[in-house]
Amino acid sequence: MERFGEKLRFLRKQRGLTIKEFAKGIGHTTHSHISEFETGKRKPSLDFALRVSIFFGVPLDQLVKDDLELESSRSESS
């Protein structure tokens, strides 16, 4: 799960969202927490990772498994 933040940042930027916009859209978190996830200072809970997966329409395993890359067609079609 070391690359979760990198993947989160990629998905957020691909959608053209600021950290604040994403935090508001996903709910139950703050922009500072999102920043900490993206920089690797904080590890996500399973609940948060699942909400990110649903929000962006990507499989949970692609977000949390470091050896799996994001499928760009899935994230672009959301």
**Termini, distance in Å?**
23 Å
Q: What is the helix/strand order?
A: HHHHHH
Gross morphology: globular
Tell me the domain tally. 1
Q: Residue-averaged pLDDT, rounded?
A: 89
The share of residues in helices is 55-70%
Descriptive labels:
78 residues; mainly alpha; 434 Repressor (Amino-terminal Domain); 64% helix; disordered C terminus
SSE map:
Blueprint lengths: L3 H11 L4 H8 L4 H9 L6 H11 L3 H5 L7 H6 L1
Helix pairs in contact: 1-3, 2-3
Word description of this protein:
The protein has helices spanning 4-14, 19-26, 31-39, 46-56, 60-64, 72-77. By secondary structure, the chain is mainly α. Residues 73-78 have low confidence and may be disordered. It contains 6 helices and no strands. Helix content is 64%, strand content 0%. It has a single domain (4-65), classed as 434 Repressor (Amino-terminal Domain).
Quick recap:
With 78 residues, the protein is an all-alpha fold. The protein is built from 6 helices and no strands. It has a single domain, classed as 434 Repressor (Amino-terminal Domain) (Orthogonal Bundle), CATH 1.10.260.40.
